Amino acid sequence: MIDTGVSLVAGIVFGLALAAPPGPMNAVIAEESVVRGWNSGARAGLGAATADFVFFVLAYLGVVAVIERLTLLRAAMVFVGGLLMLYFAYGAAAEARATYTGSEAPAEEGKGFRKAFVLALTNPYQILFWLTVGVGLLEVGTVDVLAPLSEAVAGLVVVRTGSPALLIGLFAGIGIWITGFPAALVAARERMDALASAIAYGSAAVLAGFGVYFLYDGVTTAL
């Protein structure tokens, strides 16, 4: 039986996995947090999250309808999404020892939201994610997370893709990161590198798992 709670938790984990790895968005959030405090860091995070919501709406209103009618195109896009997830996983693992604070010049006062929003809207990886993996998350279906491991645990953790619980969880996970990350930077800046390493490795594992699934989904859909 599909548990709505499982889909919600899976969405939160996936949202955290997407938001946590080191990259341009977290560099902006870190700069704002360290230089100007939690409020500025959270506003920068909200800018990045707002861009994700814009992509989500566009995918929901337009892309999904096209993909549903063109099976081979959907398969190709989901396959590319799987490769993208594996790429993100590799990047997260490779940069697990890197600091989030970076060396870029800090954003101008009060411009963190705008800078992160524009940067996210023009980020090709973010756009490609919502045109590939995002389509897979919106499409109604199920993912038996533990089935590839053993038949004995098949059916224990089943996630419903396209469900409100999964999508709410996804943005809740992003929300947890964009508020918790600035708080952690402000409260314990000197310990952030160790925390970043653990988060990056965990994110790599989650993203790799979803990447393998989307690769499998893309291949089986095309056949």
Portion of residues in helices? over 70%
Q: What's the structural domain tally?
A: 1
How does the overall form come out from the CA principal axes?
A: globular
Spatial strand order of the main sheet: 1-2
Radius of gyration (CA) equals: 18 Å
If you had to describe this structure to a student in words, what would you say it looks like?
The chain has one domain (4-222). The protein has 223 residues and is mainly alpha-helical. Mean pLDDT is 75; it is low at 103-107. It is globular, with a radius of gyration of 18 Å. The longest helix has 32 residues, at 38-69. Helix content is 74%, strand content 4%. The chain starts with a helix and ends with a helix.
